Amino acid sequence: MQLQDINKTRYNKHIKITFIAICIFMLAVSLTVSTLLIRFWGGPEGENLLWNITGVVVAAALLARILIAYKHHPFLYEVVYVRQVKAELNRIYRKQRKIKAAASEGDPRAMAILDFSYRASRHIFELDNNTITLDDLANSQQELSALQQQYNITELPTYQSEWVAEY
């Protein structure tokens, strides 16, 4: 996976619209389905929790199908891209302890994974206006640079997502 330049204004606009549309869709469909289910099969004493849960599940299933069908639509490009980057960062984070240990022993692939992780995190933080942790991220990047100097690694290999599975 390679990082891409994303228009921050367009991303923020599209993520807000997408989030609002998802909320409205879930609300409308789950209420409609659960109301219809309660109308035809609901209990007289108001014990309709099962029908309400069914309404939410139906709405979620429909939403998942819609999102899968339209994930390649140009409007959702930035939203899907950021979701993919965040998923990749989560994969790396789950194995971060082993990756950092390998990097501290001079493994260039581990260093490339960490470098990608730090660059991708900065990219996502800036897109999401999450600047609180940028100082910590800069410190981590400096530590990685020190490791590269320690092991005389001037150029890291290009990150490959398959490498994460090795750790």
Question: Can you walk me through this structure?
Answer:
The chain has 167 residues and is mainly α. Helix content is 72%, strand content 0%. The chain is built from 6 helices and no strands. α1 packs antiparallel against α2 and α4 crosses α5. The longest helix is centred in the first third of the chain and has 34 residues. The chain is elongated and about 75 Å long. The mean pLDDT is 95.
Question: Which terms summarize this structure?
Answer:
167 residues, mainly alpha, 6 helices, 72% helix
Strand pairing plus helix content: what structural class?
mainly alpha
N-to-C terminal Cα separation, in Å?
18 Å
Instruction: Tally the helices.
Output: 6
How much of the sequence lies in strands comes to: under 5%
Element order: H for helix, E for strand: HHHHHH
The main sheet comes to: none
* Helix content range: over 70%
Radius of gyration (Å): 22 Å
Q: How many β-strand runs?
A: 0
Catalogue the unreliable spans.
none
Give the overall silhouette: elongated
Mean pLDDT, to the nearest integer, reads 95
